[in-house]
Write a structure and sequence with these properties.
By secondary structure, the chain is mainly alpha-helical. The chain has a single domain, classed as Ferritin, CATH 1.20.1260. The chain has helices at 3-32, 36-62, 82-109, 113-142, 147-159. α1 packs antiparallel against α2 (36-62) and α3 runs antiparallel to α4 (113-142). The chain is elongated, with a radius of gyration of 17 Å. It binds hydroxy diiron-OXO moiety. Hydroxy diiron-OXO moiety (OFO) is lined by residues 16, 19, 49, 52, 93, 96, 129.
Length: 165
């Protein structure tokens, strides 16, 4: 595999672990302000991020490539309200999308067709990830951070079967 592509895939493995940390941190934030519905949503997201990391790890193993594990940064947790936290989730996912786009381009430019196909799953997944947080944010933006309405959304998320513990 091309050296730069391998280096960036290893970095992406680290970013997925960071993403899990970010959503665990966000879950703590929501638990501390008694919003268990939002906490459940981001905790499920953390679980998905760990799956993404595992997918990249397994792919590098299957390709017999060198895996480099790097330190995971601690996320910033200075959210001022629930909307701020979910905005952070959306902008983080947009950043991750840009990283996958770069990886895809590099795989294509280095004619690594197996990696190009492997990355397609992530490109599609990012559309869903952005959509999930954008949809949630639209609901929150419409009510302008009114506490009672945010709590109403939280209660609905808590019973929403789409999100599991
Ligand atoms: Fe792994 O997709 Fe979010 O960050």
């Amino acid at each position: 595999m091309d050296n730069k592509l391998l280096e960036n895939l290893n970095k992406q493995l680290n970013k997925e672990m960071y993403s899990a940390y970010l959503y665990f941190a966000m879950s703590n934030y929501f638990i501390n302000i008694n919003m268990e519905g939002f906490a459940k949503v981001v905790r499920q997201q953390a679980k998905e991020e760990l799956d993404h990391a595992r997918k990249i790890y397994n792919y590098l193993v299957a390709r017999n490539e060198q895996i480099t594990l790097m330190p995971i940064d601690a996320p910033d947790t200075n959210w001022i309200n629930p909307t701020d936290a979910i905005k952070n989730a959306l902008s983080h996912e947009q950043f991750i999308t840009s990283l996958f786009n770069e990886l895809f381009e590099l795989a294509r430019n280095t004619k690594d067709y197996a990696t190009e196909v492997f990355l397609q799953w992530f490109i599609e997944e990012q559309v869903e990830e952005e959509d999930k947080f954008r949809t949630l944010l639209e609901k929150m933006d419409n009510i302008d951070n009114c506490d009672c309405e945010i709590m109403h959304i939280d209660r609905n998320l808590k019973i929403d079967k789409e999100y599991v513990e």
